[in-house]
Amino acid sequence: MNKTTDNDYLRHPGGSPATETVPPEAKRPSLYRVVLINDDYTPMEFVVQMLQKLFGYGREKATRIMLEVHMKGRGVCGVFAFEIAETRAAQVLEYARRYEHPLACVVEKV
Ligand code: TYC
Fold it and tell me: What is the atom index within ligand 1 of the atom nearest the CA of 43?
């Protein structure tokens, strides 16, 4: 079945050919959350600095995210396209292991 999408207008501003098929994922890639998981051993300051270094957050936002994780057990530290989310999560784990902290994080579909 052919489907007319917003893309038809962008690709053919002079008039939409109703014949073109555009998969919806071509314009709206799925998003994935990088979720930090609480533990009893990783120092709060380490988590704040990690969020600043790897995610580019300022100290206030990094502290807010860390406290959310600490108090609720988990918290979202960013939402990205799949490959970026996977890369960021791997960087979190690599960074934590380098300093021998048990910090955990998972990627989940939004
Ligand atoms: N709960 C940890 C502590 O009391 C702090 C912490 C916060 C650990 C966030 C992990 O993802 C985390 N030191």
Answer: 13
